[in-house]
Specification:
This protein is elongated. It is built from 32 helices and 64 strands. The N and C termini lie far apart (about 150 Å). It is an alpha+beta fold. Pfam families: Beta-prop_IFT122_1st (PF23381), Beta-prop_IFT122_2nd (PF23377), TPR_IFT122 (PF25295), Zn_ribbon_IFT122 (PF25144), Zn_ribbon_IFT122_C (PF25143). Keywords: Cell projection, Cilium, Cilium biogenesis/degradation, Cytoplasm, Cytoskeleton, Developmental protein, Repeat, WD repeat. It is found in: Cytoplasm, Cytoskeleton, Cilium basal body.
C-alpha cells in the first residue's frame, strides 16, 4: 500500500475538523472562525463561509446531502444548506465541541462542554441534556437509534434518540485517559473474528481457515466478490431488534494512547491497542474495512478494522487534528495543526501467487484467500498482520508478514482439497522483492540476490545475478530439486535448481525481461520484454522462433506443447505452432493457460476464462494436420468444431482421428461407416477412391461420390446410391447411353420407389417400360384398374402365360369374367376357362366346352350338380351327377337333405327325397355290379320309407294343424296303413302317438269301436303330450260305452281270395288268408282291386307285354276303350259293356288252398298272358336290374291310374284332382305338361 499526494493547500489557522459532502464532490473544512469549501477533484477553494465569531471546532454533513452544520467556540451552531447558505442558528451555554447528524432521521446532535442538544428540522426547539463532564466527541450508530458520547473524564455514554442514557462504558484509565475521538463502524456486516478475540492471538490468527460461501456462484459464472459473500453472511444472521451486539462496533481513541473497540452493549472487543501517541481523530472507510488514525505523531496511520496497523499515510510537520475518507473511494484528506490540508490517493498493490489452478491473493490487507480456479472453491485464511508477500506451489502456501513467514500445507493430496494447515513458521524479518515457495524451500529475491532457505529459516545457498531480477517462477521438478526460471533486467534468462549453486544461462536477449514461461516439454521459452514484445525461443538451439507485438504477459498451455497465449492492448492472443495469431477481446493479464481455460488477472480479481480452441484447431485442419488438430480439440471446442474435425479427418482418410472425433459427438452412422471401411481394409481392399466415395456419399456429396465410384470402376455402386436416394434423373444422366440392362434395373427401382410413396399409376407405367409386367399387373389389380389390365393383357404375347394368367385372375376378382375368358382363350388354358365358367355359373358355355373336350366333364358336371342341389333343383342335380358319374356323391347329398327334411318335420319332402334316393340306388346298381345287391336292398328300404313318410305327412298335418284336409275315411285308412307298416321299427321323426291318436279318433267316428279301443289301450302305454292328454283320457272313457266290434262296412276285402280281413292285422298289409299283399291307392289308401301276378320262367318282360297286347278273339266281344290320360296309363271300361269272365284262364289261377302260411304267388304262362286284355293289366316297368311288376284288375269297371314315374296307383278321379292341385304327381312330383292335359 502506498499513498500518492493528489493536492495540498494551506490555511492560515489550525484545521480542527472537516466533512465531505455525501457525493464526495465538496469538502467542508473548519479553519479558524471560517468554513472553507473545496472542490475535491483538484483542491480549488470554492468559497469561504463566515458566520461564526470564534474558532470553529466541528463540522458535519447530513447523509441526504441537503445541509451541513458547524459548531464554534462562540457557543453557536449554524445550519447551512448545500447551496452554502446559513438557514438556522442556535446556541449552547458553552463552546460547541462536536456535532453529528443522525444517518437516518437527520436529527442533529450538538455537544458542548456541559450539555448536548438534539435538533431536527420538524422541531422548533432544541432539547438539551446536561452532562457531568466535557463532551469531546460523538457518533451515531448506523441505524440512527443510538448516540455515543466521548467524555473528557474517560467515560463513553450511549444515549437513545431522546437523549436518555442506555449504556455507560467506564474505562480503566478514567480521567487520566480522556476520550478524544470515537466512531461507529459504518459496515453492518460483522464477522466471526470478534467472537475469538479472547483466544491466543497468534494461534487464532494463523490457524483459522474459513471456507468462503460460493452460493451466489453458478458453474460457468464469474465468482462473486467477497463483498457479496459478506452480504450473504448478513442475511444468515439478521439484526436483532434489541441492542445488537454483532452489528455495531464502536472504535474509541483516548489520550491514554490506546485504541479500543466496544459492542453496543458496552462489552469490550479484544484488548486495547497501544498507539504510542495521543490520537486526535479516528474515522472509518465507507465500508468499514479500514480505520484512519491521526494525532500527535504527525502522521495518519492506516489500521485494519480490528486495529492492526498497516502503514503510514502522509507524514506531516505538525499534529494531525482531523482525517476523513472521501465517500466510496480510496482518497484520504488530512487537516493539521499548522493549517495544512493534504489530499492523498491510497494505492493498494496486488499481493498474490499462482500455481496451475490455485490462486492465492491478499484480502483486507491481512487475510489470504486461496481460490481454486476450476471448481470455483475459495478458502479464507484470516490474519491480524499485514500480508506482504504470498507464494503458492503444489500443496505449499507461503505468507510473508512484517516479522515472520508462515508456511502452510494441504491436509491431503486430493487435487480438490482446499484445507490448509500451518506446517512451519520462520519468525524472522525479511526484506525481499519477490517470494517463491518450493516443496522444502523458501526463495527470497532481493534485487540481484537470490537466497534459498529451508523451512526452518536456515540459508542453504545463495545466487548473485549480474542484474536486477525482474521475474522468477518455479517450473517444477522433484521435491527438493525444483527448477526456477529467472529473468533479469539485462535480458538474461537463467534456470536455477534449488539444490545446485550454479545457475544455467538459457539465453540472453537485448531487452529487459518482464514475464517468462516455459513450455510443458521444456523445449520452448516464451519471453515478454520491456517493449511489450512476446518472443519465443527454442531452448536447445537458442533460435528465435517467432515474435509478436503488444504483449504484457504470456503463458504456455500446460496440456499442449505448441500452444501459448499472451495478453496486451485489451486483447487475448492465442498462437498455435507457427500459425497466425487468433485474437479476441480480453481485459487484464494472462497468468495461466490450462486446456481450454485461460487464467486472467484483472485489477484485483482472478478469473478462469473458457476459450474454445476452435481457431487453432482450424489452422491445423487447413494444413491437414489431423492428429495435432485432434489434440487441440481435446482442450475444449464446441460440438460443431468436433464434427468439422471428424468430417475433415474422414475426408483426409485419417480414420483413427475421425473415429475419435465422431465418438465425441456420438454419431453412430459415421462410426459404422469407419468400422466398415476398416474391416474392408483388413480384408485387403486398398482403393482410397472407393473409400472416399463412400465418405462423400454419407456426407451428401453425391455427385462427387458418383465420380469417384466411376473412377474406381464401380459404376453399379453409384447407380445403387442414386436409386436408393430416389435421384433417378441423376442416375439416368450418370448412365447416359450405357448398358440397357442397367437402364431397366434403374427404371425398376424407380417404379419400386413410386409404389412405396403411393404413386401407383406412375409405378405401373415404369414397371411396364422396365418389362416388369407382373408387378404392373399386381398394382393395377390391387387398385381395380380394369382398363389398365385390359390394355396390358392385349399387349402381352400369348407365350407370356404367367402375366396373362395373373391378368385373368384379377379380371375374375374384379367381376369381369368376359375379359378373364378372353385372356384364358388367348393363353389356351381350357381348364382355367372351364373353372371360370363354373365359378361364374355360366353353365351353357361350360357344357359347350365339355362337348368339344369330354375330358373336362367331371370339372363341369360335379360343381353343376352341387349348385343344382344347393338351389333345390334335385331332379336336374340327379341328372348332372349321373352325367358326371358321381352317383355316390349324389346319394350322400340326398341322404343329408332327407335327414334335414325329417328333422325339420318336412315329411312330404322327406318322402320325395327317399323316392329319389331309391331311384339313385337303382342307377348305381345298374352301373356297379359289385354293389348291385346292396343297392337293391337300399332301393326297397328307401321305397318303404318314402311311402311311410308320404303317409305320415297327412297324419302330422292332422294332429298339428287345426283343420283337416282329408276325409275321415282317408285318415282312417292312412292310420291303419301306417300302423301296419310300422311292425318292425319306427323311422326317425314318426310319432306312434300321433298315428294311434288319429286312428283312435277316426275309428271312433266311423264305428270301428274295437279298433278305437285297441288304439286307446296302446296309447296308455306311451308318453302322451300334454295337448293330447285330456282328449285321449276322455276318448278312453267314452269308447267303453261303445259296442266291442267294428263296423262291417270298414272291413277290407282281399280281391284274390275274397276274404274279409280284420281292421287290425298282425301280419301287416297282406291278406290273412292268402298272404297276398294289398295294393293301396296312393291318395285314399283304400285297397285297390288289383292282384299281382308273376311270369313263368323263360318269359321275358318284352314277350309278356307282346302277348298281352295280342288281339285275342274273345276281345272282339266287347269294345275296348283305352285312353291315354295325362301321360298316365289308364284302364277304363264303359258302363254298358258286359264283363263275361267265365272263360277267363286267369280266374282259375286265383284259386287258393285255405290255411297255407306261405304266400303263393299267381304265376301265369303264355296262354294266360295271351288271354288277358291290355286294359285289365297294369305294368310297373322298373329299370334294370329290377324286374317289372304285373297287376291284373279284377274290377275293370273301376278306373285306376298309375304314375309312369313312381308307379304309384291311384283311383283315376283322385289322381286327376291331385294333378290339378299340384300340377305334378303327389308322390314323385313329376311335373305334368300343361299342353298334354
Amino acid at each position: 500500500m502506498r499513498a500518492a499526494l493528489t493536492w495540498r493547500d494551506k490555511a492560515e489557522q489550525c484545521i480542527y475538523d472537516l466533512a465531505f459532502k455525501p457525493d464526495g464532490t465538496q469538502l467542508i473544512i473548519a479553519a479558524g472562525n471560517k468554513l472553507l469549501v473545496y472542490d475535491t477533484s483538484d483542491g480549488t477553494l470554492i468559497q469561504p463561509l463566515k458566520g461564526h465569531k470564534d474558532t470553529v471546532y466541528c463540522v458535519a454533513y447530513a447523509k441526504d446531502g441537503k445541509r451541513f452544520a458547524s459548531g464554534s467556540a462562540d457557543k453557536s451552531v449554524i445550519i447551512w444548506t448545500s447551496k452554502l447558505e446559513g438557514i438556522l442558528k442556535y446556541t449552547h451555554n458553552d463552546s460547541i465541541q462536536c456535532v453529528s447528524y443522525n444517518p437516518l432521521t437527520h436529527q442533529l446532535a450538538s455537544c458542548s462542554s456541559s450539555d448536548f442538544g438534539l435538533w431536527s428540522p420538524e422541531q422548533k426547539s432544541v432539547s438539551k441534556h446536561k452532562t457531568n463532564s466535557k463532551i469531546t466527541c460523538c457518533s451515531w450508530t448506523n441505524d440512527g437509534q443510538y448516540l455515543a458520547l466521548g467524555m473528557f473524564n474517560g467515560i463513553v455514554s450511549i444515549r437513545n434518540k431522546n437523549g436518555e442514557e442506555k449504556v455507560k462504558i467506564e474505562r480503566t484509565g478514567g480521567a487520566a485517559s480522556p476520550i478524544w475521538s470515537i466512531c461507529w463502524n459504518p459496515s453492518s456486516r460483522w464477522e466471526n473474528f470478534w467472537n475469538r478475540a479472547n483466544e491466543d492471538e497468534e494461534e487464532s490468527v494463523h490457524s483459522y481457515l474459513e471456507e468462503l460461501p460460493v452460493l451466489n456462484s453458478r458453474p460457468g459464472s464469474s465468482q462473486c466478490s467477497d463483498t457479496e459473500e459478506e452480504e450473504h453472511e448478513e442475511e444468515e444472521s439478521p439484526r436483532d431488534s434489541n441492542l445488537d451486539e454483532h452489528n455495531d462496533i464502536l472504535a474509541v481513541a483516548d489520550w491514554g494512547q490506546k485504541l479500543s473497540f466496544y459492542q453496543l452493549s458496552g462489552k469490550q472487543i479484544g484488548k486495547d491497542r497501544i498507539l504510542n501517541f495521543d490520537p486526535c481523530c479516528v474515522s472509518y472507510f465507507t465500508k468499514g474495512e479500514y480505520i484512519l488514525l491521526g494525532g500527535s505523531d504527525k502522521q495518519v496511520s492506516l489500521f485494519t478494522k480490528d486495529g492492526v496497523r498497516l502503514g503510514t499515510i502522509g507524514e506531516q510537520s505538525s499534529w494531525v487534528w482531523t482525517c476523513k475518507v472521501k465517500p466510496d473511494s480510496n482518497y484520504v484528506v488530512i487537516g493539521c495543526q499548522d493549517g495544512t490540508i493534504s489530499f492523498y490517493q491510497l494505492i493498494f498493490s496486488t499481493v498474490h501467487g499462482l500455481y496451475k489452478d490455485r490462486y492465492a491473493y491478499r484480502d483486507n490487507m491481512t487475510d489470504v484467500i486461496v481460490q481454486h480456479l476450476i471448481t470455483e472453491q475459495k478458502v479464507r485464511i484470516k490474519g491480524r498482520e499485514l500480508v506482504k508477500k504470498i507464494a503458492i506451489y503444489k500443496n505449499r502456501l507461503a505468507i510473508q508478514m512484517p516479522e515472520k513467514i508462515l508456511i502452510y500445507e494441504l491436509y491431503s493430496d486430493d487435487s480438490s482439497d482446499m484445507y490448509y494447515r500451518v506446517k512451519e513458521k520462520i519468525v524472522k524479518k525479511f526484506e525481499c522483492n519477490l517470494l517463491v515457495v518450493c516443496s522444502a524451500h523458501i526463495i527470497l529475491c532481493q534485487e540481484k540476490r537470490l537466497q534459498c532457505l529451508s523451512f526452518s529459516g536456515i540459508k542453504e545457498r545463495e545466487w548473485l545475478m549480474e542484474s536486477l531480477i525482474r521475474y522468477i517462477k518455479v517450473i517444477g521438478g522433484p521435491p527438493g530439486r525444483e527448477g526456477l526460471l529467472v529473468g533479469l533486467k539485462n535480458g538474461q534468462i537463467l534456470k536455477i535448481f534449488v539444490d545446485n549453486v550454479f545457475a544455467i544461462v538459457l539465453l540472453k536477449q537485448a531487452t529487459a525481461v518482464r514475464c517468462l514461461d516455459m513450455s510443458a516439454s521444456r523445449n520452448k521459452l516464451a519471453v515478454v520484454d520491456e517493449n511489450d514484445t512476446c518472443l519465443v525461443y527454442d531452448i536447445h538451439t537458442k533460435e528465435l522462433l517467432f515474435q509478436e507485438p503488444n504483449a504484457n504477459s504470456v503463458a504456455w498451455n500446460a496440456q499442449c506443447e505448441d500452444m501459448l497465449c499472451f495478453s496486451g492492448g485489451g486483447y487475448l492472443n492465442i498462437k498455435a505452432s507457427n500459425f497466425p495469431v487468433h485474437q479476441q477481446k480480453l481485459q487484464g493479464f494472462v497468468v495461466g493457460y490450462n486446456g481450454s481455460k485461460i487464467f486472467c488477472l484483472h485489477v484485483f480479481s482472478m478469473s478462469a476464462v473458457e476459450v474454445p480452441q476452435s481457431a487453432p484447431m482450424y489452422q491445423y485442419l487447413e494444413r491437414k494436420m489431423f492428429r495435432e488438430a485432434y489434440q487441440i480439440a481435446c482442450l475444449g471446442v464446441t460440438d460443431a468444431d468436433w464434427r468439422e474435425l471428424a468430417m475433415e479427418a474422414l475426408e483426409g482418410l485419417e480414420f483413427e482421428t475421425a473415429k475419435k472425433a465422431f465418438t465425441r459427438v456420438r454419431d453412430l452412422r459415421y462410426l459404422e461407416l469407419i468400422s466398415s471401411i476398416e474391416e474392408r481394409k483388413k480384408h485387403g481392399e486398398s482403393n482410397n477412391d472407393l473409400f472416399l466415395a463412400d465418405v462423400y456419399a454419407y456426407q451428401g456429396k453425391f455427385h462427387e461420390a458418383a465420380k469417384l465410384y466411376k473412377k474406381s470402376g464401380h459404376e453399379n455402386l453409384a447407380l445403387d446410391m442414386y436409386s436408393d436416394l430416389r435421384m433417378f434423373d441423376y442416375a439416368k444422366d450418370f448412365l447416359g447411353s450405357g448398358d440397357p440392362k442397367d437402364t431397366k434395373m434403374l427404371i425398376k427401382k424407380q417404379a419400386d420407389w413410386a409404389k412405396n410413396i403411393n404413386e401407383p399409376k406412375a409405378a405401373v407405367e415404369m414397371y411396364l417400360s422396365a418389362g416388369e409386367h407382373m408387378k404392373a399387373i399386381e398394382i393395377s389389380g390391387d387398385h381395380g384398374w380394369v382398363d389398365m389390365l385390359i390394355e396390358i393383357a392385349r399387349k402381352l404375347d400369348k407365350a407370356e402365360r404367367e402375366p396373362l394368367s395373373k391378368c385373368a385372375f384379377y379380371f375374375k376378382k374384379l367381376d369381369n369374367p368376359g375379359y378373364a375368358a378372353e385372356t384364358y382363350m388367348k393363353v389356351g388354358d381350357l381348364k382355367a376357362l372351364i373353372d371360370l365358367h363354373v365359378e361364374t355359373h355360366r353353365w351353357e358355355e361350360a357344357f359347350a366346352l365339355t362337348e368339344k373336350h369330354p375330358e373336362f366333364k367331371d370339372d363341369v358336371y360335379v360343381p353343376y350338380a352341387q349348385w343344382l342341389a344347393e338351389n333345390d333343383r334335385f331332379e336336374e342335380a340327379q341328372k348332372a351327377f349321373h352325367k358326371a358319374g358321381r352317383q355316390g356323391e349324389a346319394v350322400r347329398v340326398l341322404e343329408q337333405l332327407t335327414h334335414n327334411a325329417v328333422v325339420e318335420s318336412r315329411f312330404s319332402d322327406a318322402a320325395y327325397y327317399y323316392w329319389m334316393l331309391s331311384m339313385q340306388c337303382v342307377d348305381i346298381a345298374q352301373e356297379n355290379e359289385q354293389q348291385k345287391t346292396e343297392m337293391l336292398q337300399k332301393f326297397h328300404h328307401f321305397q318303404h320309407l318314402a311311402e311311410v313318410y308320404h303317409v305320415y305327412h297327412s297324419i302330422q298335418r292332422y294332429t298339428e294343424e287345426p283343420f283337416s284336409f282329408h276325409l275321415p275315411e282317408t285318415l282312417f285308412n292312412i292310420s291303419r296303413f301306417l300302423l301296419h307298416s310300422l311292425t318292425k321299427e319306427t323311422p326317425l321323426g314318426i310319432s306312434k302317438v300321433n298315428t294311434l291318436f288319429a286312428l283312435a279318433k277316426q275309428s271312433k267316428a266311423l264305428g270301428a269301436y274295437k279298433l278305437a279301443r285297441h288304439a286307446y289301450d296302446k296309447l296308455q302305454g306311451l308318453q302322451i303330450p300334454a295337448r293330447f292328454q285330456k282328449s285321449i283320457e276322455l276318448g278312453s272313457l267314452t269308447i267303453r260305452s261303445k259296442p266291442f266290434h267294428d263296423s262291417e262296412e270298414l272291413v277290407p276285402l282281399c280281391y284274390r281270395c275274397s276274404t274279409n280281413n280284420p281292421l287290425l292285422n298282425n301280419l301287416g298289409n297282406v291278406c290273412i288268408n292268402c298272404r297276398q299283399p294289398f295294393v293301396f291307392s296312393a291318395s285314399s289308401y283304400e285297397v285297390l282291386h288289383l292282384v299281382e301276378f308273376y311270369l313263368e320262367d323263360g318269359i321275358t318282360d318284352e314277350e309278356a307285354v307282346a302277348l298281352i297286347d295280342l288281339e285275342a278273339p274273345r276281345l272282339s266281344k266287347r269294345e275296348s276303350k283305352w285312353q291315354e290320360m295325362m301321360n298316365a296309363q289308364s284302364l277304363r271300361l264303359d258302363d254298358n259293356t258286359d264283363a263275361t269272365e267265365d272263360d277267363d284262364p286267369f280266374t282259375a289261377k286265383l284259386s287258393f288252398e285255405q290255411g297255407g302260411s306261405e304266400f303263393v304267388p299267381v304265376v301265369v304262362n303264355r296262354a294266360v298272358l295271351q288271354s288277358m286284355s291290355r286294359r285289365d293289366v297294369l305294368v310297373k316297368r322298373w329299370p334294370k336290374p329290377l324286374r317289372w311288376q304285373y297287376y291284373r284288375s279284377l274290377l275293370p269297371d273301376a278306373s285306376i291310374t298309375m304314375c309312369p314315374s313312381c308307379f304309384q296307383m291311384f283311383h283315376s278321379e283322385d289322381y286327376e284332382l291331385l294333378v290339378l292341385q299340384h300340377n305334378c304327381c303327389p308322390f314323385c312330383r313329376r311335373r305334368i305338361d300343361e299342353s298334354s292335359q
